[in-house]
Amino acid sequence: MNTKKVIYTSETHPLTWRLRKDREPVWINEYCNKNGYLAAKNTIKNMTSEDIISLIKESGLKGRGGAGFPTGLKWSLMPKDELMNIRYLICNADEMEPGTYKDRLLMEQIPHQLIEGMIIAAFALKAYRGYIFLRFEYIEAAANLRRAIIEANEVNFLGKNIFYTDFSFELIVHTGAGRYICGEETALINSLEGKRANPRSKPPFPANVGVWGKPTCVNNVETLSNIPAILLNGVKWYRNISKSEDTGTKIMGFSGRLKNPGLWELPFGITAGEILEDYAGGMQDGLNCKAWQPGGASTDFLTERHLYLPMEFSSISKAGSRLGTAIAMVVDDKINMVSLLINIEKFFARESCGWCTPCREGLPWIVKVLIAIENKQGQPGDIEMLQQMCHQLSVGKTFCAHAPGAIEPLQSAIKYFREEFEEGISLQSFSNVKSIIGI
User: Fold this and answer.
1) What does the alpha-carbon distance between residue 250 and residue 327 come to, in Å, rounded to a whole number?
2) Over 90: is that where the pLDDT of 267 sits?
3) CB atoms within 10 A of CB 137
4) What burial letters (b/e) apply to 159-191, b meaning 16+ CB within 10 Å?
5) β-pair type (129-134, 170-175)
6) Are residues 401 and 322 part of one domain?
7) Which of 274, 300, 331 is the last residue before a domain boundary?
8) Quick check: 294 and 324 in contact, CB under 8 A?
9) pTM over 0.90
10) Is there a contact between 238 and 245 (Cβ–Cβ < 8 Å)?
């Protein structure tokens, strides 16, 4: 097994260098001894809100939840009107994307890093209260975050008059009810308000009308965890640690039947093949890479010939997929793509909020057709019908991005592995068609 040994330093691994070898959480004393809360203290005492937003814009930090929207730009969309003095900051910690577990690592093992990032973000956004909307199943993360919040409150890093200034910020952990759709920020906001987790119509956008009708900014766990290092070390350093036009580092990973599946903090621009071979140790003996998804179950499949691609937003997009969460899943050559698709599409069908017809009715129908194909009972035209369904559930044809994400793995699997679908079309069906039309 060829796995790369990595030396973690604050200069090269800003997100993970504080991790303990025994995997125990880094609590407040240890975190402070490793430069923790220094960025928050310096920022609140010496910078203005405008200065921070400008710096985050200049850093090029993009959202790490999957969409890759520029963080500084998102912050700048918050209203400038000082009369709108009730504002909220929400950390999207729902992380329900199958195969993705990067935010869990950060929350369980370095909870104070997220809290510090939220303090700085709240100061920049002039938010007086923050919520960490946490996936229901992340029980250990919830316990560790709540303990870390108590620790931060006890030393005046949270609460009233933080660092003995005029700035006050309250932080609350809110656990969801276990719904994938809450990864969509407006569905998350509805759930936080105690409503059904349906996405909202946009506009208005959360920056103007968010939780309880007030200006709200929603950022991902990994996004917010980047903030302290940028403020502490500067924009030039942050841009230079990347190998790509996408700045900074990213927690990336590979799962599947590999010798060493896992997570690693790596610079943007490293190739998928390097991660697969040098960090994940390559495929298990007797197996070959058949396909892979770059960033979660809702991203298009790519093939072995795409492993040369750098892991960055633009390159993966040009190849016909999305970087997503950058936690890749490899499919080996022993797995049937139709069977795999049934598993994926069942998940997305179950997790649909049911708000719009194409998603509510279309995804279960796709599952039904796939099951028939798996059982060699597919009908002539089924593959074409699946392709038509992919078109009807694509971007702009549904209320939110749930269905477009759900059909990405399906459309790419048909594109690259159509013969596996064709094998499920019943020969008896062909015979029946021929007899009907008199051939």
Assistant:
1) 10
2) yes
3) 14
4) eeebbeeebebebebebbeebbbbbbbbbbbbb
5) parallel
6) no
7) 331
8) yes
9) yes
10) no
Instruction: Report how far residue 322's alpha carbon sits from residue 342's, in angstroms, rounded to the nearest whole number.
Output: 21
d(C-alpha 317, C-alpha 274), whole Å: 19
* Six token digits for residue 353: 């909020």
Mean per-residue pLDDT over the chain, rounded: 92
Q: Is residue 299 part of a domain?
A: yes
How far apart are the C-alpha atoms of 257 and 142, rounded to whole Å?
30
Pairing of strands 262-267, 249-255: antiparallel
| Paired tokens of 378 | 């597919």
How far CA 218 is from CA of 7, 205, 349, 352, 429, in Å, comes to 33, 11, 26, 21, 51
**Do residues 268 and 249 lie in contact, with contact meaning Cβ atoms separated by under 8 Å?**
yes
Q: Which residues contact 171 (CB under 8 A, 6 or more apart)?
A: 115, 118, 129, 130, 131, 132, 149, 152, 158
**Quick check: is 146 in a domain?**
yes
What is the rounded CA–CA span in Å between residue 415 and residue 368? Answer: 20
Nearest to 416 by CA among 321, 302, 336: 302
pLDDT tens-digit profile of 108-130? 999 999 999 999 999 999 999 99
Which domain range does residue 349 map to? 337-427
Identify whether residues 275 and 418 lie together within a single domain: no
